[in-house]
Amino acid sequence: MDKINVLFKEDEISKRVKELAEELYSKYQDEEVVFVCTLKGAVFFACDLLKNYPGDGRLEFLRVSSYEGESSTGKISLKLPLNAEHINGKNVIVVEDIVDTGYTLDYVRKYILDMHPKSLIECTLLDKKARRVVDINPTYSGFVIDDLFVIGYGLDYDQKYRNLPYIGVVVKE
Ligand code: IMP
Q1: Would you state the pLDDT for residue 70?
Q2: Would you give the DSSP letter of residue 29?
Q3: Which of 48, 97, 100, 127 is catalytic?
């Protein structure tokens, strides 16, 4: 196993996820909300967010891919589409693990807007603001981080490390 420097411990993550769920609930209250989890990276975050959301929260999945190793290719491909019936006329929250260049979120926003939701916002756990290429700012973000390649809590490096309960950085020897 590689050496990993922990960036956010399990309890820090869960505290912040609870805060985000409360902020989202205070926005929507009794309205129905569809959380769109972008697979695979956001799966732990989306589940924890939903578990802490006391309102009418629905869950849908979308899978897009852009990354190879440690770099975004900028070419997004849709691997698992959404059903437009679950989006049309609904309050939608895109749940992302991390926004890096912004290509993925930009693609996902446009894809969902084509399905005519009632409203659309974004909630990302991590925001690598310094690396942004596309001019896009997620509505909610858990933590703003430096230009580091992070793993754990759903985030992978070539499919590895998703199962770590914390978020960290692999120390290269
Ligand atoms: P973007 O299109 O460059 O904004 O990249 C967004 C996607 O790239 C995220 O949904 C992640 O799947 C992946 N990604 C970006 N940065 C990292 C990272 O530091 N660790 C793991 N995956 C990342």
Answers
A1: 59
A2: T
A3: 100
- Residue 101, ligand 1, Cβ within 6 A: yes
Tens digits of per-residue pLDDT, 142-161?
A: 999 999 999 999 999 989 99
Q: Is the CB of 37 under 6 A from ligand 1?
A: no
Does the active-site annotation cover 100?
A: yes
* Sheet of strand 150-151: strand arrangement: 4-8, 167-170, 150-151
For the segment 32-49, what is each residue's pLDDT rounded down to a tens digit? 999 999 999 999 999 999
- The per-residue DSSP string of 94-122 comes to EEEEEESSSHHHHHHHHHHHTT--SEEEE
**Amino acid identity at 135:** D
Q: Which of 155, 158, 169, 172 to mutate to test the pocket of ligand 1 (most atoms within 8 A of CB)?
A: 155
Query: 168: CA distance to ligand 1 center in Å?
Result: 14
pTM of the model: 0.95
Whether 127 lines ligand 1, by a CB cut-off of 6 Å, is no
Q: What single string gives the DSSP state of each residue in 126-137?
A: EE-GGG--S---
pLDDT for residue 21 is more than 60: yes
